């Protein structure tokens, strides 16, 4: 899969580009089957909504336990475009599933993912991206990803209060005056798309998401890729938050997720 010049330009200008139907229903089905099994396991990589809760908020490193996710990480349909956008070979800094739970899936405050990676992991520059792959239909009601288009042009924002109690990981929450200024300048868009959609997102794009008020799960998996020349300098967090495997991803065949395995 090759991005067109117009898609690359859209990513540069708006900070994200949406690729409809990047993955087929069969491929999404394979991922969802493994995800159900993974989420039912007691794993240290699965963070609950809050202490005492049994509702998963974020599940990291599904590729350690699932062949489908292992193949997704090595899928050529996203590796080629990600290499193009980052102008380098890439490795996975972090693989994170957000299975926003029916009725109970809570919100995420406005932040940049690079805010955390810079602060916690010593990632030198924002030559990293998030690929959001929609495993469910994402609607206005089930807690869609909200983005401030163009906000990545403001660079890494310093007006943050790192929330280190956000269930075992850190979210670099941005303050209200800054969000107000950014929204006045750029507006807000809700990224509502069907399952199978993928969105390449600049790691400095300011984003948030509201709670899921519906009876169905809203799952997005984020493949957070870093340029190999931009490896982290402060490898102190757990490996599932900040990988130490900096070897370039080698793509598998295009049918790796759709055939028998
Ligand atoms: O998937 C979502 O609802 C947003 C999650 C998010 O912003 C994050 O995990 O950084």
Distance between the termini: 22 Å
Widest beta sheet: strand line-up: 1-11-6-13-4-3-2
The ligands bound in this entry are: 2-oxoglutaric acid
CATH H-level superfamily title: q2cbj1_9rhob like domain
Helix content: 10-25%
- Please summarize the sheet with the most strands: 7 strands, antiparallel
Percent of sequence in beta strands: 25-35%
The secondary-structure class comes to alpha+beta
Q: Roughly how many Å is the radius of gyration? A: 17 Å
CATH architecture: Sandwich
Number of strands: 13
- What is the class in the CATH system? Mainly Beta
* Cα shape: globular
Count, helices: 6
Low-confidence stretches: none
**Tally of separate domains:** 1
What is the average of the pLDDT values?
95
The name CATH uses for the topology is Jelly Rolls
Series of H and E elements: HEHEEHHEEHEEEEHEEEE
Ordered list of secondary-structure elements with their pairings:
Layout: H1 5-14, E1 16-19, H2 25-39, E2 46-48, E3 56-60, H3 67-73, H4 76-86, E4 90-100, E5 108-111, H5 113-121, E6 128-134, E7 145-147, E8 160-163, E9 171-174, H6 176-186, E10 189-191, E11 198-202, E12 207-209, E13 218-227
Antiparallel strand pairs: 1-11, 2-3, 3-4, 4-13, 5-12, 6-11, 6-13, 7-10, 7-12, 8-9
Helix pairs in contact: 2-3
The structure holds 2-oxoglutaric acid.
2-oxoglutaric acid (AKG) binds at residues 98, 100, 108, 113, 143, 145, 207, 209, 220.
């Amino acid at each position: 899969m090759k991005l067109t010049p117009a898609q690359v330009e859209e990513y540069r200008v708006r900070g994200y580009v949406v690729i409809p139907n990047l993955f087929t229903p069969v491929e999404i089905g394979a991922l969802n089957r493994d995800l159900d099994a993974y989420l039912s396991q007691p794993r240290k990589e699965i963070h609950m909504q809050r202490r005492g809760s049994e509702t998963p908020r974020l599940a990291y490193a599904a590729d350690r336990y699932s062949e489908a996710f292992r193949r997704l990480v090595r899928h050529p349909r996203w590796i080629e475009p990600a290499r193009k956008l980052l102008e380098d070979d890439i490795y996975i800094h972090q693989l994170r599933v957000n299975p926003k739970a029916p009725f109970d899936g809570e919100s995420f405050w406005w932040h940049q993912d690079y805010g955390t990676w810079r602060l916690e992991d010593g990632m030198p520059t924002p030559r990293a991206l998030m690929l959001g792959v929609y495993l469910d239909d994402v609607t206005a009601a089930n807690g869609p990803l909200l983005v401030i288009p163009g906000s990545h042009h403001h660079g890494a924002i310093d007006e943050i209060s790192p929330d280190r109690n956000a269930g075992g990981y850190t979210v670099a929450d941005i303050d209200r005056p800054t969000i107000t200024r950014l929204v006045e300048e750029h507006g807000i868009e809700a990224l509502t798309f069907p399952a199978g959609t993928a969105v390449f997102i600049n790691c400095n794009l300011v984003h948030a998401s509201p709670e899921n008020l519906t009876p169905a799960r809203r799952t997005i998996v984020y493949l957070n890729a870093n340029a190999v020349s931009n490896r982290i300098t402060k490898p102190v967090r757990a490996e599932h938050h900040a990988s130490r495997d900096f070897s370039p991803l080698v793509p598998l065949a295009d049918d790796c997720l759709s055939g028998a395995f």
